[in-house]
Amino acid sequence: MPSGIEGDDQKSRSFIERARREQILHAAIDTIAEVGLARASLARIAAHAGISAGLISYHFAGRDDLIAHVVRSVNEGMDQALTERMEAAEDYQGVLRALITGFVRYCADHRTEMYALREIDVATRSEVNEGRATAGREQLTGGITELLREGIREGEFRDFSVRVLALMLTAALEAVPQELYSHPETDADAYADELATAFVLAVRSTQPEENS
Quick check: pTM over 0.90? Predict the structure, then answer.
């Protein structure tokens, strides 16, 4: 019996700790979106969460560790949502459309989180962090590049400069969070469909399909 009670206590503590960490992460996201990364001190984040700064230090190794967890949390949620949409597509044009519309709509549903992520990215583009920021952009561009190359190989996309189109799409996606956060009246569905249509029309093959 005592061991069972101890087990229940451990589960309760684990649940409470997870809930507290989530509370701190949300407070950090809100604070960064409101005042920017530079002004998002642990004290300010703690005040937003209604807790002491010392409690944040109990759950995270420091401010840098907290920011890293914010980035990881937002990216993991976004990656999961986009993967589900893209895997449901039937062809490469569908995958491309799913990527673009899924990203815009995810940004619309998570405006504060995505704007905070953008603020972190912009603020860390210093000489010290430029390599990390560049690596992140290259990873996104690299994924788009591979998608476009596969579409060309399968004959769904026309022959074009993959690098140029990948960079154009990367830039277009990077502009979405600020647009939606700064202009909440924006029709996200129309934005998503228009952006996706523009890129699908830009890359799709113009060759007529053979009659079966």
Answer: no
What are the start and end residues of each CATH 1.10.357.10 domain in the chain?
70-203
Residue by residue, DSSP assigns 40-91 as --HHHHHHHHTS-HHHHHHHSSSHHHHHHHHHHHHHHHHHHHHHHHHHT-SS
Task: Identify any residues that bridge with 204 across adjacent strands, giving them in sequence order.
Answer: 157
Domain with CATH 1.10.10.60 in the chain: 1-60
What angle is formed at CA 66 by the lines to CA 63 and CA 69, rounded to 5 degrees?
Answer: 150
CATH number corresponding to 1-60: 1.10.10.60
Which residue has 């937002």 as its token pair?
74
pLDDT tens for each residue of 79-118: 999 999 999 999 999 999 999 999 999 999 999 999 999 8
Tokens 């998002």 found at: 40
Given CATH 1.10.10.60, say whether it is the number of domain 70-203: no
